[in-house]
Every structure is written in C-alpha cells, then in structure tokens.
Design a protein that fits this description.
It contains one helix and 14 strands. It is of the alpha+beta class and about 210 residues long. The strands form two sheets. Strands 1, 2, 3, 4, 5, 8, 9, 10, 11, 12, 13 and 14 form a twelve-stranded antiparallel beta sheet that branches. Strands 6-7 form a two-stranded antiparallel ribbon. Strand 3 and strand 4 form a beta hairpin.
C-alpha cells in the first residue's frame, strides 16, 4: 500500500506540472469555438439618398391652377414635362405660362426650359426667357403700361407677383419702346417697385404720334 501510494503521488506530481498548460489549451479552444459560433451582427442599413431621377413624364400638356374662389390663377403649357420626386418639381421644355394677377392683369412668360415647384407658386425660366405684363387700367383710372422682360434667367413668384434675376436683363416699357439694360433685376408688382441692379443703361424715346 505504501508503494502504491507513492506511485500515485508521483504520477499526480507529473500531471500537476502540465495541468496549467492543459487548462490554457482548453480555454483557448473554447474561446475559438465561441468566436466561430457567435452570430455576426449585420452592417447597419442606411437609407439611400434620393436620386434626381424623374418618376413620370408628360408630353404636349397643360396644367391649370385655380384659387379658392374658383378663378384661374396660373396656366402652364409645355412640349414635355418631367417630375422629380426628390425636389417635387416639374421641369418643362418649351414652357409657356399665363398668370392672372389680383388686379386682373395678365402676365405671360415663355422660355426654352422652366422649373415649377409643387404648388406652381414659383417658376424658374431658363434660356431666352421672356415675361410680358399686359397694360391695365385700375379702378381709379390709372393706366399701367405694357412691360416686357428678357433674360437667360427669370424667377417668377405668382402669389407675390415678383420677378427676380441675377443675370443681365432687358426691360422694354410702354408703347414708345423705352428700353433699360441691367445686370440684375428685382421687381415687385404689388409695391410697384422695380430695382435694376449693377450697370444700368437706358434709352427713352418720345411718345409716338397718334394718327
């Protein structure tokens, strides 16, 4: 029995020397197993930014906007229209716009290309834009002459009856054909104020004789 006990003790002493190594190996294997079998979290999904791509087209069309009183406010006609959902705008080729003001005055606009916002309150006209405001006589008998604006960019605001441009403009006013040229324009029809910006040149002609 004594010799058996000594052999068992000696065997245990040998095993105890390698026991830390065995435990470390088991821990390494268990860690490796956990890494292999742990589910991988997916990459977060980011919503793609909307692209500036049209979602529908129109050809040879007209769009009319009416006020709360049922009266026509704006009418737009174009050869082709493209709607862009990211900006909720309508881009129109060969655009023609007709606006009826609060005083009944008619404003017409044409351009090679136009961009209209969702409620048609703004129209941006590009490339050979022309805006014509027909003459009108108000209730007090005051006459407002015909005005014509020409530029490669005109920004119309239907609700506030304003026209703006940061590009050179040509203004032709009245039947005599008075003409002004400027580097920019800010026109407010409701306040009857027109600001010609930058370098301004004007040509005033005498009234034409009535026959």
């Amino acid at each position: 029995p004594v010799s058996l006990w000594l052999r068992v003790r000696r065997a245990w002493d040998r095993v105890s020397v390698y026991l830390p190594l065995v435990l470390m190996g088991l821990m390494a294997m268990s860690s490796y197993w956990l890494v292999r079998n742990t589910p991988v979290m997916g990459d977060p999904e980011f919503e793609a930014a909307p692209r500036h791509v049209p979602d529908y087209f129109m050809r040879d069309f007209s769009v009319r906007v009416f006020g709360k009183d049922g009266k026509l406010k704006t009418e737009m006609v174009g050869v082709e229209g493209r709607h862009y959902p990211d900006t909720d705008t309508l881009e129109i080729d060969q655009i023609r716009v007709r606006i009826v003001g609060t005083d009944g005055r008619i404003t017409t606009a044409t351009a090679h290309r136009g961009v209209i916002n969702a409620d048609a309150s703004e129209a941006q006209l590009f490339d050979k834009a022309v805006v014509v405001r027909e003459p009108v006589v108000n209730a007090s008998g005051t006459a407002t002459p015909r005005t014509e604006l020409r530029s490669d960019f005109l920004h119309l605001f239907a609700n506030t009856e304003q026209v703006r441009s940061h590009l050179p403009v040509v203004l032709v006013r009245g039947t005599a054909g008075d003409q002004f040229v400027a580097d920019g324009l800010d026109y407010d029809n409701l306040d009857r104020v027109m600001q010609l910006k930058g370098r301004v040149h004007g040509t005033l002609l005498p009234p034409k004789d009535k026959k």
